[in-house]
């Protein structure tokens, strides 16, 4: 039976304390930033609804103040976004994506008219 060291020979003596410090520092920075982002994303909706609720408290409108705390669930937002996406995709017509290029017999176009002015010196006099 083959062991892991026979399949993947790893030399653990090559790992120094500097390598371990760098690995621990890198992993801790990544996990700390992920934790802070998750915390930030969970706090932002609460702060926004608190701000809206405070604005309606100043105005004194009870119906709007009651609606300010209600959040739309994620499932409802996902269903609305899927419906909008399907609707917008139906607006586009489906093309076959076949291009046909035909050569035009006339070689003069406004795009190459400057070359004719440069070559034609018949009307030029000093």
Question: Can you describe this structure?
Answer:
InterPro entries: Na_pump_deCOase. This is Sodium pump decarboxylase, gamma subunit. The chain crosses the membrane at residues 20-44. Keywords: Cell membrane, Membrane, Transmembrane, Transmembrane helix. This protein is an all-alpha fold and 126 residues long. 63% of the residues lie in helices and 0% in strands. Helix 2 packs antiparallel against helix 3 (62-68). The radius of gyration is 35 Å and the shape is flat. It starts with a helix and ends in a 7-residue tail after the last helix.
What's this model, at a glance?
It is found in: Cell membrane. This protein has helices at residues 4-7, 17-59, 62-68, 74-91, 113-119.
Whole-number mean pLDDT = 77
Summing up helix and strand content along with how strands pair, one would put the structural category as mainly alpha
For the largest beta-sheet, the strand count, sense and barrel status come to: none
Low-confidence stretches: none
Amount of helix: 55-70%
Radius of gyration: 35 Å
Q: How many H/I helices?
A: 5
- Beta-strand segment tally: 0
Shape: flat
What pattern of helices and strands is seen along the backbone? HHHHH
C-alpha end-to-end distance? 98 Å
Q: Determine the oligomeric state from the structure.
A: single chain
Strand content: under 5%
GO molecular function: sodium ion transmembrane transporter activity
InterPro entries: Na_pump_deCOase (IPR005899)
Transmembrane segments: 20-44
GO biological process, one term: sodium ion export across plasma membrane
């Amino acid at each position: 039976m083959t062991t892991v060291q026979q399949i993947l020979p790893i030399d653990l003596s090559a790992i120094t304390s500097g390598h371990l410090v760098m690995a621990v520092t890198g992993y801790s920075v990544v996990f700390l930033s992920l934790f802070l982002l998750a915390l930030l994303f969970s706090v932002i909706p609460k702060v926004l609804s608190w701000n809206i609720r405070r604005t309606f408290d100043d105005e004194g409108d009870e119906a709007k103040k009651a609606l300010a705390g209600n959040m739309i669930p994620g499932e409802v937002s996902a269903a609305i976004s899927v419906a909008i996406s399907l609707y917008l995709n139906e607006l586009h017509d489906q093309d076959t994506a076949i291009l046909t290029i035909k050569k035009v017999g006339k070689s003069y176009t406004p795009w190459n008219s400057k070359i004719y002015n440069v070559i034609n010196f018949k009307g030029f006099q000093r």
